[in-house]
Amino acid sequence: MFSFPRKPRAWPFLLTAALALAASWALAQKQPSAHQPSSVAWKAPAEGQADQYVGEELCAGCHEDQQKRFKNTVMGKIYAHPRTELEKLGCESCHGPGKAHVAAGGGKDTIPLRFGKDSNNSIEEQNAACLACHARGNRLFWKASPHESRGMACVDCHQVKQERQVLLSSDTRYSAPLTENRGVKKSQPELCLQCHQMRRAQLQRSSHMPYREGKVTCTSCHNPHGTPNPKQLIQSTVNENCLTCHTERRGPFLWEHPPVLENCANCHEAHGTNNPQLLKVRMPRVCDSCHVTSRHPTSPTLLNAVRDFNRGCTNCHSAIHGSNHPSGNMFLR
Amino acid sequence: MKLMRQPTILVLLALLLGPSLLFGQEAPAPPSHGSVEFGVRHVSGDVYGRPDLPFSPDVITSKFNEYGDRRSGFVIRKFYMNSDDILGSKNYVTLESQSTFYKNQSYLATFGQYGKFKVQFRYDETPHIYTNTARLLYTQTSPGVFTLPLALRTSLQAQSASATPAATLPYFMATQVVCGIAIPPATQPPACSEPFISPSILRKAGTVTISYYVTPDWNISGLFSRENEVGSRPLGLILNSSPSASATGGAGAELPEPIDYFNNTVKAGTEYGKKDWGVQLGYLGSFFENNVGQLVFDNPFRATLETASNPLTGRMDLYPNNHAHYLNFAGAFDLSKHLRFMASLGPGWLSQNDPFLAYTTNSAINTCGDGTQPCSSLGVLPAPSLDGRKQTLAMNYTLVTLPWKKFQVKAAYRLYDYYNNTRVHDFTPSQGDVGLPDVTSPEENRPFGYNKKNLELTANWFFAKRSSLKVGYEGEFFDRSHRDVEHSAEHSFISALDLSPRKDLLFRLAYRRSDRKPDGYQDMAASDPTTDLPVACTSTSTVFTEEQRCHRRFDEAARLLNRADATVQYDVQKFSFTGGFQTIQTDNNRPGGTNSPTPLNFLTGATATTGAYYLYGALKDLSYIHSFDASYTLSPEVSLFAEYTHERYYKRMISRSRSPLSGTQTILTCSGCDTANNDWESTYHDIFDTYAAGVDLYLGKKVYLTPYYSLSAGKGNVFSSALGDRTITTGPNRFALTGTSAAQNYPETTTRIHELAVVFKYKLTKNLMPKLEYRYQQFDNKDYQTSAMTPYMGCIGTTAAPVTGCPSATANVGIPQPSPFYPGFVVGDTSAARYIFMGVDQPSYRVHVLTATVELHF
Question: Which chain B residues have a beta carbon less than 8 Å from that of A251?
Fold first, then answer.
């Protein structure tokens, strides 16, 4: 007989946390501060550093390969016909004024702003360079969003000059909807699943939406750059998100099932389950957990009962998402 | 697309790869403007694990192609083309496609000028196959109208009129309807020619998007999308309120619900802003149309002489047309160097006004309107249509500030209002086209609505690069109308620590504790049937309430939620590792407050103190997830990866078996109708293990090779047990969880998805790369709810006329018998004796896919 598990002991978790904290605290002192200014501060030209810029041609003199790669990117193509003063600066629009770099005869440390893990610039400085042009659109709510407050840099996911190298295994394992966005390091969903490991496992389950088949992907529902909505959802609520595709269930209906209209996630796990219809708990228990009435749901239900096999409760209550039939108050019609 | 014969494909495959390998030469490649990957695919495999089916389901329509279309034949897997500066202009065009000519095809065409405008056309098809084991006796004579041959209905009517329909009907179905080896072809009934069906839908969506930058700071955009969804999906239908053989006129049929939807979406928006601020304005309109508004089906057990308790047909209302309109205003402003304000405001309007159907198609029911009018008439309805109207409003205000150099403080307020403005009417429903409406106690539709407010206050201290400490508070204040809880408040404490002691090492710990408390909890149905006064959980009233007075719905009830996450990421140049642990623990079983202050357990002593419960419903919901992944780049030519996730989920619920009393009885005089001695618990236990491992090789700057294997293995158990004293057999606490009401553990369900793939790609030239891919996929599925389903009924046989593959039973096949193909499963449910199922299942399969393609860059 199955016995309900005990709660796991807390001490291994706390001990690990304490050790990590202690070790990291000591080591963290060697790292530059989040807001520590870099050796040469980057500032937009409007802020009075116009004489510090050397021009794109000079950059290309030494960095020809990078410039060639950049020119083939969407950004490079926009920069070919600059629309703003910032875009006219070319390389220096992102990397900052290059005069000191040139004067020093090159060297990474003299570049005002570099990107990536090896950079001495803070995440905020790196992101500020991107946000100088990309602060709007679906980045309007980037500030204080979950990814921003975790110290994620734009370049953790995006790349500008590199040509994306897709591993053969990645190309075979993952599918993504067609997109013209080639500025990310990996295709979805692989990009997101690098950190969201649990989701990676869920997507592999038998009951799933067509993620693996490349018809739905993470950004179909979420905006990783931040939204004012819960879980970085694109729409205001879970239901508004689900009903974008499942419009037939939107209603209003004559007879409504309150947990359905409040939150689809009351019963369904959108990322994948092993239960039919993406249910969190299989029928009839998903219904039993709320209904302790005087009718059939209150008995434990034998395996061979029509309330249990096949479609469970919805063998009969098939209009469970709402009914517009005048006789549908029990969701039978 | 026509399927190609297998030998043809293999020859094509050889022809495709052979010459390119022989004659290919390294040559300098011109700049790439695009690429195309095309070739041939060969699919072979089988569906297995269902020897009880009198046919072999096709692997192509099995779960293997649930959302895909992988068949043998010529394939254009991917196509991409880009052309800049068309005809000397600054314009560009890109064309992309995937799975061209197949049912899962996608196309994307973009025309524009970088940074100026963009016009994009997208076309997508997404199939969804529900099952390929179903069979249908009905014929769809017109969209949504399902008829059953009269001869068959007449036979079934005669059978259902027998004294023991529960025994004879399954026998009749098994011997006269289900076609298999047991019935010689010469004597097979006409129904044997009925085809097997594969309920499936196909979504086809076309979208055009336009975006234009009037200036670098001002953008306008528009979108129009039209989606058509066509096909069918399984739907359960019943006559009466139960298909039980004991219910007069009770019958059920599973049918393919016809789907013919159109969904039109219109979006328009504009955005304007400068470096420090931006505003957005948008509109979204969504218009859903269902071209099949109702489903009418013949009563399988009634051919003639319609009576109030035996209708000739049943009718289901399918999803009504509906419209939704949303506006969105959003803005973000840097009020000062260290203060940013962000806000959004989004009102929405939902409406639906499809004409009502009549209460029933049953012309023999005449108790509507004034109590004597036909219920099949539209005139007795209180309104011709619902005129349903809802209004939503989403408001968000966020203030982010840096009061000190390394501190970020965020304050956010969110309001979501779901206001239901639908009119309320009195209806007299006829359940399942059989039930007699009672005009003296009409049913009122309830305009459910809610209002949710969230408040967030968090502070982040960025004490080092990629290192921060976050603490905060979140409050959720929920107001609902027409639900058990009118108002609840949930207070959450959140904390997170990110530590990056080295640039290649990151630790993250996060913890959240939420406490939700309703102000009160009162189910409207937990009331005194005589006075209509609410009966609280602690009430000593002995009346029998419609809903158990102490049950608590998990989405409204008091709860304590603890969530903890721990992650470590180590990422050096050649090696990366991420390990994580997460647990979410929801506890609804809390004494006092809106729950019972004392245990509700019938038994006392150890059983009550170790497993005490203070409510009925969901008590606990626990999850533990361990995961890691690692990759190692041995050299530029060799890289390896491995992933593993172990998940455990536990849920526990308590319920009570209750049966209505009659006359003047109370729960103290009705002999076990509502007693804690008939409480039972159910625990739900899921375990998942997900593995993947593989290698990427790049040899001699010519050969790409990758083998990988992945497995997603899940098993689930539902355990149930009675909690009372079985020895009490009389009196108000009579133990009733026996016989068909006994608690029973269900068989374990298991699913495993194996995938093994080996891909070989050869770089013949910079622009020409032949590719050979072998993929083996195996899906093992054992699900007690569907694995024993056969068309029309479970696996049923008799000694006198055994159905091949079914167990021999006694003459009374109503007695459940174990299925040999699913140990532990029993079929022959007398309650389902008059329910004709389609036999929906997604059986196990094994598939080999060999694909030979050429990747050509041009």
Answer: 322, 350, 352, 388, 390
